[in-house]
Automatic annotation (TrEMBL):
Pfam short name (any one): V-set
Keyword Signal: yes
Subcellular locations according to the entry: Membrane
All residue ranges annotated as the Ig-like domain in the record: 127-210
Species assigned in the record: Astyanax mexicanus (Blind cave fish)
Principal location class: membrane
GO cellular component: cell-cell junction; membrane
Signal peptide residue numbers: 1-21
Protein name: Si:cabz01074946.1
Length: 264
């Protein structure tokens, strides 16, 4: 009587999953568990079989203590819970996105099948943040940032740091990008966060913004370059001056005769 009740529970679970069209989402490189929801304290399984491709390819089977993985596709990446029938798939790949069917056989020889639709997705890449405008205007630093992402259908949103009390405006998510305009006080560093998300995935990036001075200081490299040019010009002028001072006097023609110029 207990086993009949357990079998009935499995049937109810199977009908529920099939009616709901159970979908499971996994991510490339990670693991996922396809759970049967079988309670091992009330159900005793004698055979478990997982298959793909409309039940034509068995990927793992456990039968009265004998565990086998007859199909090469998932070899070495499967872990089967023989008490519940749950299947763990490790190191997920995009081509693991398939329909998986588990066939559960109880000690009363009652058999039930449950299907899972596995969808494997790539991780959502982090959005890029670029500085569009950064300038000190009348003791207030005006900041403009743009957040963008290559993937389509991604929602972008901005989050200022905790305690940020300045007003800010952000554009709607169009063309996979969103802009933020705000102001900060001079001599402060503020970190803004851009969040990217879809129905299943999330990612974020941060950008630390420092108020740009009205007249930015030249870098040491630029100063060295400028001083080198000045030194070269000065050396050239001194060389020309010395050449003129020590040059021999020119001959002067006077009355058809060649005479040397006399220096007073």
């Amino acid at each position: 009587m207990i086993m009949n009740t357990a079998t009935g529970l499995i049937c109810i679970l199977a009908c529920f999953y099939q009616a709901m069209g159970l979908k499971v989402t996994g991510y490339v490189g990670q693991s996922v568990v396809l759970k049967t929801r079988v309670d091992p304290s009330s159900v005793h399984l004698s055979r478990i079989q997982w298959s793909i491709y409309t039940n034509t390819s068995i990927i793992v089977v456990w039968d009265s203590g004998d565990l086998r993985e007859p199909f090469w596709r998932h070899m070495g990446r499967l872990t089967l819970n023989i008490s519940t029938g749950d299947l763990q798939i490790k190191n997920l790949r995009v081509d693991d996105s398939l329909t998986y069917t588990v066939s559960l056989l109880t000690e009363t020889t009652d058999q039930t099948e449950i299907q899972f639709e596995l969808v494997v997705q790539e991780h959502l890449s982090k959005p890029d943040i670029a500085v569009l405008f950064n300038s000190l205007v009348k003791d207030t630093c005006i900041i403009a940032l743009r957040c963008s992402i290559a993937e389509a259908g991604i929602t972008l949103s901005w989050a200022p740091p905790d305690g940020f009390d300045q007003p800010f405006w952000n554009s709607n998510n169009t063309n996979n990008s969103s802009e933020l305009w705000t102001s900060i006080k001079p001599h402060t560093n503020i970190s803004f966060t851009c969040n990217a998300s879809d129905s299943n995935r999330k990612a974020s990036s941060q950008k630390v913004v420092q108020c740009q001075e009205e007249e930015p200081k030249a870098s040491p490299q630029f100063l060295r370059h400028r001083y080198g040019i000045i030194f070269a010009l000065l050396f050239f002028c001194i060389t020309i001056l010395l050449f003129k001072v020590h040059a021999p006097p020119k001959a002067i023609l006077h009355g058809g005769e060649k005479r040397e110029a006399v220096t007073p």
